[in-house]
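Weekly sync notes, structure subgroup
Attendees: PM, AL, DS (notes)

Item 1: joint prediction request from the bench team. They want all two components modeled as one assembly rather than separately. Inputs as received:
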Amino acid sequence: MLQILGQNVLNALQLGSVYALIALGYTMVYGILTLINFAHGDIFMVGAYLSLAAAAFLLGLPLGLPLVVVFVGAMVFSMLLTALLGVTIERLAYRPLRQAPRVSAVITALGVGLFLENFTLGLLGPEPRHFPSLITMGVWEVAGLTITPLQVLIILGAAVLMVLLDLLVGHTLLGMAMRAISYNRPIVPLMGVSVDRVISLTFAIGSAIAAAGGLLYGLAYPVLDPYMGIRIGWWAFIAAVVGGIGNIRGAMLGGFILGAVEIFTPMVLPSSTYRDFVAFSLLLLLLVFKPTGLLGRPVFERV
Amino acid sequence: MTLLEVIDLWIAYDRINAVRGVSFAVGEGEIVTLIGANGAGKSTILRAISGLLPAARGSITFAGEDLLSLPAHLRTQRGIAHVPEGRGIFGNLTVLENLRLAAYGRSQAQFRQDLREVYRLFPRLAERRQQWGNTLSGGEQQMLAVGRALMSRGRLLLLDEPSMGLAPMLVREIFKVIQRLNRQGATILLVEQNANLALEVAHRAYILENGEIFLSGPSRELQHHPRVQEAYLGG
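Output from the run, pasted for the record:
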């Protein structure tokens, strides 16, 4: 019993890492624009497909590249292109609405999401695509638990990205500018900072992290379809709200909580089909009792 | 030499013409003050100079360059340092981070050098450098706001109500700093409700009423102008 529990904690950590990476994008954009970027789940989906394309291309080359090279290549390619996609979406769809009522921007975000889903569907067709396996399939036995190299890769990879982002927000000039914008945007140009540029970089970073999440997700659950971003996007969004939207560390915490909800629901309730019910109930309860989320106020903060 | 020249400036704010055809100039090395009642358009003019508000008509020239075609952050980089009404301290940044951000676009070495200057001017900020902005007292926030303006190496300081909400002793301290900065070469455009104080430190003054300049001249003369004494100096 304890062994099953331990094994599931590991699974929850693996899934939670992916949710946390995507939740970061929601929370960063909300932190500086107070906009829920509902297209973010679909940006994650595009990131997963771009990883797949790069990996398939590199594997197809007659060079016999080592898998590490393929993995890193796919990650860099997909992060760069997805960052560009995020910046383009902000530039074309959200920036013209910066002064418009918030609801216009939210509806636009939903529209951008639909566009990405249907564009991918039109381009690639409805058949699910299989993600190539980029990591050897060994199994390690540690204290009665079976740990795969893939699990370690996902958990560590996500952890590295989260630590880097936390350092960026807490200790760099760009991070200071992001926090300043979330606190009092109109004043920021008086510091000589271009607000548009910081917002573009925020979209770039959030989208790149979602792309990394897409690659890691593809490795763990190797079937991609154009609508995969919807459910995962919602779950990551809930994770961001549960942790306290606008709060970077809250998004990470929320991601792991949602990962645990998904893994442990079938252990407690009769079927895994209850997982959405449990996740949304958690969200509603939290909004009633602690509307700002677990880690407090809706601003970029070092806790 | 004229550093800032404002010609026939009109600013619409909330669909009202808050500023109506204002012209004035600030010479290099001067302290010039805009005096007027609440809502006379003083802050609005400063906000149009730094780019926080668009101008409806007219021109603003700084060191020979047209400012109105530049976005606000580039005006700051050209040397306009605006200390806004209410100070605009970032509460979720530390004192040191507030100062570092204000030196955006400048090298770490230049930042270090200017930081020493600001700490010498306001030793209090050095003591509080690791504290969050929102834990500062009103006086400390004002020091930080002025410190930030200095970090951007502004040639022209726009000061909006630096005395607001401060105890009289702190007000005197802040105004001493303003005069000291001016002696070191800073040009200052000061907006104040405390007309006594403003006329005391400024070389020249413009009196605004309902968005228009209705009197101007050297501070010494305006201090004794019957209309000014009656309306602003309680005399």
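Discussion: The interface with chain A takes residues 50-52, 71-73, 76-77, 81-82, 84, 88, 90-93, 97, 100-102, 104-105, 148, 152 of chain B (CB under 8 Å).
Action: AL to compare against the crosslinking data before next sync.
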